[in-house]
DNA sequence: ACACATTGCTGACTTAAGTCAGACATATGC
DNA sequence: GCATATGTCTGACTTAAGTCAGCAATGTGT
């Protein structure tokens, strides 16, 4: 019985094929073949344009057409010509279609909830699933600008504060730190960037400006499941690009000696240590970078 | 953008469906439909008995038969009557079949190796995959008797020693501890039990006897990815059952105060603390259970 | 205005997978 | 020894999925 990496991966494949297979056939639970269900769900998720649909699901033009006709006959979908190009067609859900779509969503959610309820170590499982999903799909991590008050940003910041609390010997209390105003981290003064892997926010960085030529980097965080992939570096590069775009010439940041991997990154990417420039109680390292 | 458990699970499903789907179609890479390839692989993995095959792959009797005929026509498989029951049939690979089977194995291994090479955090990924696979298939954890020198047992023991080294403040050196003779943990004197989840050993326990009515429980270990599932308790129950079977009436064990969850388990399952009964340098807790 | 490209659609076809009923040989219990 | 159960096989059928060629409508460049 070999216990090498390869047999472990293959064990994983077997386990997941079975589980995901069960998920696939569950789509049959509503009396509709998988193909039709996939089309219905894609439309429900906003991919109504027939060409987009084909592309997303990887289907042949003829097959797509037939599946759409089937859903039309069921009264779940209507297709209308595209407003600006009459060759193209756009599919949309009818009232009945929306109902059926929600039924699939509920089914899918229920299955996920079920897994959570059955496994006594939900948190560990979720973390492991995040890591696997990130590893499998990591080409797809995109960096996007977001409102620092958006769900994605708040999720990252909450995790960031929690991690500071664990790692700083003093603990961490947001109220004592200078929590930047949202407007300082949005255009035109600054920016807030979120790294997203297939819908899950996995990292963030804030650029806090005051309208002048100096700005601060704040809140650099990468979720544990996405570490080791060079994402922090990508986030910093994106933040610097945004700074250049805003006409900023000098960047500063503060950090803490407990955050060793962050300090290492700064030192390796052209930041130089400077004197303390604020009276925030938590940081004990201060850096600057001129661009 | 919701970041709840359910959307995380669904993200995982998407990532894995894509990856495993690619793996599935790769089976077509050798010009044979998935069904036939699955049968060939199952036979290669020792499931030649036609009934076993059907059961394992979840196929209809007729379909199985047809797929076997197909493989026979290709010259990859021969079916012979079962030696003890002429109604049953057993399929076996021919020389060409074995070659084709190894080609599939190589393909599958290559894919796994590829994943490892592409992801910079192989160890973390493997651990996460183990945990997910265990969670998905945990109904299937079987407890089996094994030779303490078998691959599976050695794997568990190695992990066990490594964990002791990390957790005991003194470290742990097998050479200083009393490493039981293999024969003491095999019938008729004792037993060695391994918990196996779809081929991966995930826990073990040894019953070390000397031929008398007293025996010791040794080497209780559960791998991190399978903790929290009550497996240690199951292993202990299986060990006690084996002891009863061997006519043993008194069980003893030693442990260390650093292994808190183990001590808790012993106290909850009828073990009572006794005086030190050996001079092994590592243990500082001693228990006994009469049956 | 014309040739040509693009888009979606339809009909005819193939392959894979699976279901069902019944045939046939072999085992098992009484 | 006989009725019944079990295990495998075959033939006839269905469904899902996908491919391919060609058609009709619409857009684009010259």
TrEMBL record, chains A, B:
Residues 141-291 form the N-acetyltransferase domain. InterPro entries: Acyl_CoA_acyltransferase, Bact_Acetyltransf, GNAT_dom, HTH_MarR-typ, WH-like_DNA-bd_sf, WH_DNA-bd_sf. It comes from the Bacteria. Keywords: Acyltransferase, Transferase. One of its GO terms (molecular function) is acyltransferase activity, transferring groups other than amino-acyl groups. SUPFAM superfamilies: Acyl-CoA N-acyltransferases (Nat) (SSF55729), Winged helix' DNA-binding domain (SSF46785). Pfam families: Acetyltransf_1, MarR_2. PANTHER family: AMINOALKYLPHOSPHONATE N-ACETYLTRANSFERASE-RELATED, AMINOALKYLPHOSPHONATE N-ACETYLTRANSFERASE-RELATED-RELATED. This is PadR family transcriptional regulator.
